[in-house]
Amino acid sequence: MNFRRGRTREEPEINFIPLIDLMLVILIFLMATTTYSKFAELKINLPSADAEKTAQRASEIQVAVTSGGRYAINGQLVNFTTIDDLADSLRKASSSADSTIVVNADGGASHQAVVNVMEAARQAGLGRLTFATQTATSH
Hints:
Main location: membrane
Protein name: Biopolymer transporter ExbD
Subcellular location: Cell membrane
Number of strands: 5
Pfam families: ExbD
Strand content: 15-25%
Membrane topology: Single-pass membrane protein; Single-pass type II membrane protein
Number of helices: 3
Order of helices and strands: HEEEHEHE
Strand order of the largest sheet: 3-2-1-4-5
CATH topology of the domain at 60-131: Nucleotidyltransferase, domain 5
């Protein structure tokens, strides 16, 4: 039995005005209760060291890697076809098994070129490896 024959049913509406009012109240509450930390105002006195630079050790092997993938050991360009050849060149340049390899890689050198030096050092039995960096100068 339909008692409301002539009356059409209205579509329900969602009124967003109360929702917006509620969100504004929550936003104001969050803004009023939030604490902000100011890390920029931390005053830290960092320690300083007045030690002299250590003298270059005689057992260092300087390996330069250019952005083009060329290698130089102690200033001499090295041409090789396999990593074994590079390892042989490192063995010849080392004075002892305690030699430290200093990798001077160009910023544009490929990752693989640096990994080749690391692998050749491992094959040559030279376990000490370090990377040279350059400090930024202010102009």
